[in-house]
Amino acid sequence: MNKAKQLQIISWGLVVVVVAMAVAVWWSERMNGGKLTVYSFFPLLGIAAFSIMWTHYISGSVRRKLGIEAKENKMYLTYSSLVVLALILLHPGLLIYQLNRDGFGLPPKSYLTVYAEPAMKLAIGFGTISLLIFLAFEFKKKFEKKSWWKFVEYAQLVAMGLIFYHGLTLGRELSVPWYRAVWFFYGISFVAAVIYNYWYDSSIKKRG
């Protein structure tokens, strides 16, 4: 089996595993005999989005370790990114829709009313900031050659950190011990992947 095929299998395998775990913990917390509502469904979308984005960084490290180009994994990057985009739009979108329908109005009023505790307000703010950063990345094809684009890429890393806190603070699923451990594994391995990717890319530039 060639290296490109190995990378594709690992990448898609990671997606299947992380989404399966997200569904499993969500199901255990939300589908225990109660009625499925927008409020009980939208958290799954956020958990899945972060989990799939995590696979991008881990797969990036695997790709570098195997010594192959990103284009060898183009299908995975394209389709998984489209799924993430849909999820990060639907996650807050469904919440905003339902809060407004229930008479709480639109953000920021609805957010401040429902999420009254300071830590929750901070987490909601982090989520909003992260969404804007992630959406900014959708303009990569148009602006990636600009000198300032690197700051957008750095901001993506910050956004991942903000979402990590967002999930820990607001996600009921994150109170489940085994999945909380998974979440911390995501965080630690994400940092390790970012460091490795930076080191690898810097080494390649020096050689070039």
Written description of the protein model:
- The protein has helices spanning 3-30, 38-66, 74-101, 109-114, 118-136, 140-143, 149-170, 177-207.
- By secondary structure, the chain is mostly helical.
- The chain has one domain (3-207).
- Helix 2 (38-66) runs antiparallel to helix 3 and helix 5 packs antiparallel against helix 7.
- The mean pLDDT is 94.
String of helices and strands: HHHHHHHH
Query: Class by helix and strand content?
Result: mainly alpha
Number of helical segments with 4 or more residues: 8
Which radius of gyration do the C-alpha atoms yield?
A: 18 Å
Q: Kindly give the count of domains.
A: 1
Largest sheet: none
Query: Which oligomeric form is depicted?
Result: single chain
Q: What percentage of the residues does DSSP assign to strands (E)?
A: under 5%
DSSP E strands, number: 0
The end-to-end span amounts to: 29 Å
- Mass-distribution shape: globular
pLDDT below 50 for ≥5 consecutive residues: which ranges? none
User: Roughly what is the average pLDDT, rounded to an integer?
Assistant: 94
Helix content: over 70%
